[in-house]
Specification:
Elements (H helix, E strand, L loop, with lengths): L4 E2 L6 H4 L2 E2 L7 E2 L20 E8 L5 E7 L5 E3 L1 H24 L11 H37 L4 H16 L7 H10 L5 H17 L21 H10 L2 H13 L3 H5 L6 E2 L4 E4 L8 E4 L2 H8 L13 H19 L9 H16 L2 H8 L4 H5 L12 E6 L2 H9 L3 E6 L2 E7 L1
Antiparallel strand pairs: 1-6, 2-4, 3-4, 4-5, 5-6, 7-8, 8-9, 10-12, 11-12
Helix pairs in contact: 3-4, 7-8, 8-12, 12-13
Length: 425
């Protein structure tokens, strides 16, 4: 039985010229219940919890039914409706073409003065020039992507840079005119300074490929302390997400790895017996092996093993799904701080908590995989934890002190012939 086409892929809606209409009713499950087996399972995750969503209408007025997956949050268009609209459109084009060939199609004629004729010719030339410029810009962007690959840029970096160039083009900037790019950046008031700075760096590299230079606008971002959530807020977010997203977040929380490193993780990198995970670095970091908890191992084993990677999927779609779940959790718990947690926030949280426990900057540097200790200092924030209670212990001999240090106790002071140690509860 035919499945549904995911909107994340090249949607056939663009072919038939559909336009979305606001949904006037709540989502309804297929056959009246989410527990029944629908005719069309979700092609993204294979779930049978497909609910009826809003409707779309083509230019010709044909109705397109939309569907919503309750597990992964993807929306789909009914392929039968799309095919029916496409066939109708092709039939209309065929009939019109036959009428023109047979001479039955009437063409209205009227007298136009010479001035009006020149104006019409000028109006027809303007779209033609725009089309040529757009085609030339698209060609330059593709050429730039190939140039970045030859220069050895990472695939993720190339993808982000090309996406930024396309965004500038969609915002009205002419990449062949540096002044046009400046004007576009100046009008984008909703962009923060950091985003505009990245756009300037991206366009500068684009001009470098062509052997050109420009006077870039000066954007200086204000350095702020990273947002550090509480452990309870992180746990609430993980508990509210679906199975795959929750496992991904738990992995970032325990290891502090980058989200790109987590997406590159293979099943062979996870050692279930020793409870460790081998991290393949990105951004020039060091490879490392970190311990993981039994809880995380059980969550990983609960995922599908049909692919080489536990999180093999579209990163953009995975991120959009996470944001949708995060928004619902923050609204449900009435805590806007949860809506500020993103993937990299968990790296900040891991570095900060590890430094608070050990006060060892080299230990944090090893966990994060940094080569330069200056990069590690960005993640170590002096925060106040609510739990200031400690376990205390004493040692009279070197052997006793050694055992306490191995157990995680830290030295405080001497009291007579006794050494005092403490460890946070």
């Amino acid at each position: 039985m035919a499945g549904l086409t995911a909107e994340a892929k090249s949607s056939p809606d663009c072919i038939v010229g559909t336009s979305s209409s606001p949904c006037t009713c709540k989502s309804e499950p297929v056959h009246g219940s989410a527990n029944t087996s629908p005719l069309h399972p979700c092609p993204q995750c294979g779930s049978t919890k497909v609910w009826r969503s809003s409707k779309r209408y083509t230019v010709g007025g044909d109705e397109i039914q939309r569907w919503f997956c309750r597990d992964c949050g993807v929306r789909f268009s009914d392929p039968k409706d799309l095919q029916r609209a496409r066939d109708k459109r092709n039939q209309e084009i065929t009939e019109l073409s036959n009428e023109i060939k047979s001479g039955n199609h009437s063409i209205n004629t009227s007298q136009i003065c010479v001035t009006e004729t020149k104006n019409l010719e000028a109006e027809q030339q303007i779209p033609e020039v725009l089309r040529r410029n757009q085609a030339e810009v698209k060609g330059k962007i593709l050429e730039h992507a190939f140039w970045m690959q030859k220069e050895g840029y990472a695939e993720a970096t190339t993808t982000r840079r090309i996406r930024m160039l396309k965004t500038l083009t969609n915002k009205g900037a002419n990449l062949l005119d540096p002044e046009s790019v400046k004007e576009t950046l100046a009008t984008l008031q909703h962009w923060n300074v950091k985003t505009k700075k990245i756009a300037v760096e991206t366009y500068s590299l684009f001009l470098k490929m062509q052997g050109l230079t420009w006077n870039p606008p000066r954007y200086k971002s204000v350095r702020k302390l990273p947002f550090i959530p509480t452990e309870q807020e992180v746990n609430e977010l993980i508990a509210g997400c679906n199975k795959k997203t929750a496992t991904f977040l738990q992995l970032l929380k325990e290891t502090g790895m980058r989200c790109g490193e987590a997406f590159m993780l293979n099943w062979t990198d996870i050692n279930l017996e020793n409870r460790t995970v081998d991290i393949t670095p990105e951004k020039g970091s060091e490879p490392r092996q970190l311990p993981i908890s039994v809880q995380l191992i059980n969550m990983l084993l609960n995922l599908k093993h049909d692919k080489e990677q536990p999180f093999a999927c579209s990163q953009r779609h995975f991120t959009r799904t996470f944001r949708a779940q995060r928004k619902k959790i923050a609204a449900k718990l009435k805590n806007e701080r949860i809506s500020k947690i993103h993937f990299h926030t968990l790296r900040h949280w891991k570095a900060t908590t590890e430094y608070a426990k050990t006060k060892d900057i080299l230990h944090v540097m090893k966990i994060l995989g940094h080569k330069n200790i200056q990069n590690t200092l960005l993640y170590t924030q002096l925060i106040t934890f609510k739990n200031d209670e400690f376990h205390s212990a004493t040692a009279k001999t070197v052997e006793d002190a050694q055992k306490l240090v191995e157990a995680g106790f830290e030295y405080v002071c001497d009291f007579g012939d006794v050494k005092l140690f403490r460890k946070r509860k």
